[in-house]
Amino acid sequence: MIDIKKYDVLLMDLWGVVYDGHHLYPGSLETLKKLKDLNKEVILFSNVPRRKSTVENLLNSFKVDKSLYKDIVASGEIVNEYLSEKKKYGTKYFYIGSPEAEEVILNIGGYIKANHPKDADFSIITGIIDYFDEAMELAKQAVKYNLPMICTNPDKSSITKNGEVTHCPGVIAEKYEELGGEVIYFGKPHKQIYEYALKDIIPTKKILAIGDSMENDIKGATNMNIDSALVCSGIHRHDLQINVGEIPTKENLSKLYKKYSLKPTYVLSILSNIEKS
């Protein structure tokens, strides 16, 4: 059981925790309102390969008002800021991903899109949910030219509104490394996104990270010595053999912990159950 009163700041994942990418999970909006009433600083903390403004617009469409959270930290926004400040990997990029997610680099002056990897300095991979096979082929082309790859989302999979598991950029980035390519990751579980999210937070404040991924949310929090809460209704729903909101068995949780050699501080069947802690 979570003693929510002892935490000042909540690093809260979005996809798999607050929403499924298309709809809010039951009770999510009410939970955010109650956390605001408790004066909790909620930082929405996501590996989504999109700009902060895009995520904000999506939340607005769900009636999640900006007053309910302190900030949105999206891996896509961090990539945009990084590429705006530095041109460490050159100026010509080979793009892999959805047309919409190219927004992470499109507005930055000085970059040129290359139509073939032989003409590029680096590759960048973003959202691939509807482009997995094409993205994998493009990545195999890029690695032949020794292009460093910027991965805007280390997630290897996500869960759809229908409960189906689909591929994310991290799985292609992993293959890229297996083929000998260099990958620069932005997002959980890597240190830089935590430092970015917490840069304005007073060090004495107590932090709780809430997420649905053992590999990214729980691992990242553990590496940063931050308490964590695993939400079971997200990506591990099938491993845990539950539907949204159901409580997994201790046996299935133990198997999950063993699989990743990790254990969260707390477990929630769904985000709204944090109110009952």
UniProtKB/TrEMBL annotation:
Keywords assigned by UniProt, alphabetized: Hydrolase
Keyword Lipoprotein listed: no
GO cellular component: cytoplasm
NCBIfam families: HAD-SF-IA-v1 (TIGR01549), HAD-SF-IIA (TIGR01460), HAD-SF-IIA-hyp4 (TIGR01459)
Endpoints of the signal sequence: none
Coiled-coil regions, chain positions: none
Protein name, per record: TIGR01459 family HAD-type hydrolase
GO molecular function, one term: phosphatase activity
